[in-house]
Amino acid sequence: MASSIGTAAASRIFASSSTRARLSLRSSSSSSSFSSHYQRRSSASSIGGFSTVAGPASDPNQLKSAREDIKQLLKSKFCHPILVRLGWHDAGTYNKNIEEWPQRGGANGSIRFEVELKHKANAGLVNALNLIQPIKDKYSGVTYADLLQLASAAAIEDAGGPRIPMKYGRVDVSGPNECPEEGRLPAAGPPSPAGHLREVFHRMGLSDKEIVALSGAHTLGRARPERSHWGKPETKYTKDGPGAPGGQSWTVQWLKFDNSYFKNIKAKRDEDLLVLPTDAVLFEDPSFKVYAEKYAEDQETFFKDYAEAHSKLSNLGAKFDPPEGIVV
């Protein structure tokens, strides 16, 4: 789930090319200057720096090159979980009951602004933005909205997951006044897990089947109690990394995308593996259980359903230029 992936994803700080940016990340008092760094980029984009020429929102050739750079970043920083989380949390604010863009939320790059980064569900995502910013600087003809979804899909594929059918051309919001209000993302431990998941994901226009399929992305990542208040400080599976050590993972090989998340929840055998209330309910709620049981037994079906659900999530609320999108 987006929120649990969120509260759970591994976070690693990647030094930016600017010493000033590095210093700002290390000081809680400087979060506004970090946000301003992104806001200035956005302003340049809308005023005349990056994407004022006629044409699609993102340059197709730059998208292809950015994808290759993301693959190298994944291999060097093992940041698959947090890049998946970043893309999900940008898209997951979508409200199908609001027609106007960008009020409806969704994949529009708004998460780069401080007002949204400060949302409780987005704890630690400043690190993900710091990872991706050098690539955004290099490929200024790619929107933030596209880059975040490109990175999320690339992370799934690089971890051994299915190829996600993606399109690009998402338009960025231009300022923090266009960010959604807090509270649109799921929580990991609500009083009524099944009801909460349905309330949040049905608001996005997603089905029970898609809720369960997307939950399977918890095969990647770890929960860190200092951020999410869930999980152990470390386990035998996380104490040595890779990347920053610690946290509690849902799976033994938490950088490999497969169906072991569902198998582990069903087996209930390993106390070093995390099971949140929103995980356990997948095998308790009658509707969810149909899909969870199927995915635990059939990885091919899980991959197919997951790819379709991830693709749908990545497009939620987006305004495309051109309207039909760009395939690269």
**Cα separation of the termini:** 27 Å
Label the structural class. Answer: mainly alpha
Strand order of the largest sheet: 1-2
Show unreliable segments: 1-54
Following the backbone from N to C, one meets helices and strands in this order, namely HHHHHHHHHHEHEHHHH
Notes on the protein architecture:
The chain is mainly α and 328 residues long. The protein has 15 helices and two strands. A two-stranded antiparallel sheet has the order 1-2. The longest helix is centred in the N-terminal third of the chain and has 18 residues, at 60-77. It is globular. It starts with a helix and ends in a 13-residue tail after the last helix.
Which helices and strands occur, and which strands form pairs?
Layout: H1 2-8, H2 19-25, H3 31-47, H4 60-77, H5 80-91, H6 114-117, H7 125-138, H8 144-158, H9 193-203, H10 208-215, E1 222-223, H11 225-228, E2 248-249, H12 260-267, H13 277-280, H14 286-297, H15 299-315
Antiparallel strand pairs: 1-2
Helix pairs in contact: 1-5, 4-7, 4-8, 5-7, 5-8, 10-14, 10-15, 12-14, 14-15
